[in-house]
Amino acid sequence: xxxxxxxxxxxxxxxxxxxxxxxxxxxxxxxxxxxxxxxxxxxxxxxxxxxxxxxxxxxxxxxxxxxxxxxxxxxxxxxxxxxxxxxxxxxxxxxxxxxxxxxxxxxxxxxxxxxxxxxxxxxxxxxxxxxxxxxxxxxxxxxxxxxxxxxxxxxxxxxxxxxxxxxxxxxxxxxxxxxxxxxxxxxxxxxxxxxxxxxxxxxxxxxxxxxxxxxxxxxxxxxxxxxxxxxxxxxxxxxxxxxxxxxxxxxxxxxxxxxxxxxxxxxxxxxxxxxxxxxxxxxxxxxxxxxxxxxxxxxxxxxxxxxxxxxxxxxxxxxxxxxxxxxxxxxxxxxxxxxxxxxxxxxxxxxxxxxxxxxxxxxxxxxxxxxxxxxxxxxxxxxxxxxxxxxxxxxxxxxxxxxxxxxxxxxxxxxxxxxxxxxxxxxxxxxxxxxxxxxxxxxxxxxxxxxxxxxxxxxxxxxxxxxxxxxxxxxxxxxxxxxxxxxxxxxxxxxxxxxxxxxxxxxxxxxxxxxxxxxxxxxxxxxxxxxxxxxxxx
Length: 538
Known about the structure:
By secondary structure, the protein is mainly beta. The protein has helices at about 5-15, 515-520; strands spanning about 25-30, 35-40, 50-60, 65-75, 80-85, 95, 100-105, 110-120, 130-140, 145, 145-155, 160, 170, 175, 180-185, 190-200, 200-205, 210-215, 225-235, 240, 245-250, 255-265, 285-290, 300-310, 310-315, 320, 330-340, 345, 355-360, 365, 370-375, 390-395, 400, 405-415, 420-425, 450-455, 475-480, 535.
């Protein structure tokens, strides 16, 4: 079974196009596209297909080990629709007559896809013909709730019109977003929902009593969503637009940000807004009569990326340790983003930044985080994961303003070398030239900090030390000096191009030893696996 885009899933759940996954409880939930409209059968030209997804949610934190089956009953669609399985988005699915059975031997924690379907109106079908796909599941020891997808020939086809926006912005800039859409379908839409997704650096100026802001959640970190509901009948062939201003503003944390706007018919049984804004009521008015076309849910959405002139100060955290020969100590290495911007690679998912840790003489790494790769002193790849002189760690794809990022290590002190100096450097995985020189960071002086082992005299300006206990097996912890603070939210990318690199910053760095400075400056080939990683976030 395939895993699906969490951002896409979160957006569809917010719009009511799926049955929301249960957060807790014994039931494993089947869900998916609740309603599908089909273009009428034409008999000529390429068929106009619609799509439907079926998902399953494991509400626990552990994978379910064991075979389970999901069965789709298509018998109610005879004479209404022709259904086929999209091979690219599905696997282990077999069709026999009016039944499709999908199997797998593991149900991962969270939300994942089961099957993607393509549907076309059946020959001889007429507008208004309808039926349902009944979805059931079976697995030993767990309960899989049932689900159904309603299929109708004809329906509204809401097409979002693309806005003309400028991508370059400054902090505090505002842009009007005169959202407009057209119903290109065969029947009116009975109420519509406008969903406006913005990343952390953007916000709407106006508040309306039929709009609700929903901060980002665990499935879409970095994004916030404004949901506006509109009652009434929205007729085919008409363009509708907002009747009051809706201005988008770049906040003081903006950098690379994105704006996604989409429109859908109000789903049946949709819950009212929980926390609507205070103010006037936002409405929709007909603007013109034009267009006709097919039903296509993929044109309900438009999006735009912004680049705001802003900076983020990533300050590496200095670390000082004391330990006797033969003892093991624990230490965390990282940085703090002093802002004002957040840094995020929402589109690419690439790490926002890297942390290079140079190990002082006399110490050896005995345990490292999964997010950190072992390197040789010349920055070439090292096969042995432990005992390396240098480690490169990749952050997650988002670093919020005022957030600290750290990576926990364990080191064994083989020999006491007074004032042994290593370093901690916040940088980029893109190449040696990016070490300690993050493009969004105007203060390169604090991108690197000293990692001092067994100082002959403790410098009161450095971070606290951690001394291990007398026994050889005992360990002591050393944590960065940066204090924790709330992390930020939504999204756009943060690099030279939208969806590019993001950066993090740490606490104020201490005095940088000459040896540490040399380590930061040096380096040849750099090895780093660019992938999303989970790190400690404060």
